[in-house]
Amino acid sequence: MASVKPISLLTVEADKQTLAIITRMVAKKFPDNTVYSAENGVTGIEIFKQFNPDLVITDANMPVMDGVEMVRTIRSLGADKTFFVVTAYSDRAIFDTFTGLGVCAYLLKPLDFNELFASIEICITKCQGSEASNQVETLPAARVK
Asked: Distance of alpha carbon 14 from its chain centroid, rounded?
């Protein structure tokens, strides 16, 4: 990855084991960045308000508050942040909902860490104001139905 300033990331995932793995792998791959984590959308919003991360990586389906509602709530706070969705849902309607909310990337589970890291790099570039595409990066696009 090119020389860029460190950013902060928030990972929101309901499955504790998946959350721990993603958080650990992201922290290892991007050691200069700060990584926070939350197990649902409500906790994600609380951590967001406290630390104001640059990039939010979220699952779509979570207890208490899902990813769509969390993104909407954070956006309603006036936060112009970058969002990245990691989900098991390949449904076109969910993809379209997140696209309408302006997410940077939409990646389907099971995760391929090379795809995850490539998507994070795209989103970091967008966070830092480079001329990143306004289109949602979907890896691989053919998996969204």
From this structure: 13
Extended strands (E) in 48-100: 55-58, 82-87
Tell me the pairing of strands 105-108 and 137-139.
parallel
Neighbouring residues of 103: CB distance < 8 A, sequence distance ≥ 6: 71, 83, 84, 85, 136
Q: Which residues contact 77 (CB under 8 A, 6 or more apart)?
A: 48, 49
Match 């691989």 to its residue by tokens. Answer: 140
Find residue 83's DSSP bridge partners: 56
Rg (CA), the chain: 14
Q: Structural domain boundaries of the chain? A: 8-130
Instruction: For residue range 84-120, list pLDDT tens digits in order.
Output: 999 998 888 989 999 999 899 999 999 899 999 999 9
Q: Considering the entire predicted model, what is its pTM? A: 0.85
| Cα 90 from Cα 71, distance rounded (Å) | 18
Going by C-alpha positions, the residue among 57, 64, 118 that lies closest to residue 83 is 57
Assigned token pair, 45:
């919003």
CATH superfamily label, 8-130: Response regulator (3.40.50.2300)
